[in-house]
Amino acid sequence: MSRQDRFTPASAEDWLDDIAEALKAYGGAAHRSLVIDRVQIVRGRRGETWAEEAARAVQEAFERHRDGRGRGLFRLPFGEGSHRWALDQGAV
């Protein structure tokens, strides 16, 4: 596998649709570990390589776009420190 075929942290924004789709599959909210696992499964079905950095990139993409940040797609329904992620009302 060439270096180009592997995940790079710069591609973190590419994860937004996968996060949203995973949350929709769980009814709009789920524990972050379930979301990350589902994204990994979906990406694996597409033949993409999963790297340890990918889980961090998924979390980073979520953080950049939650609670009015960035595109405001996601939120923490149980507040700061919670590991339960949800789609923002405007993203549903």
Automatic annotation (TrEMBL):
Organism lineage string: Bacteria, Pseudomonadati, Pseudomonadota, Alphaproteobacteria, Caulobacterales
Protein name: Uncharacterized protein
Superkingdom per UniProt: Bacteria
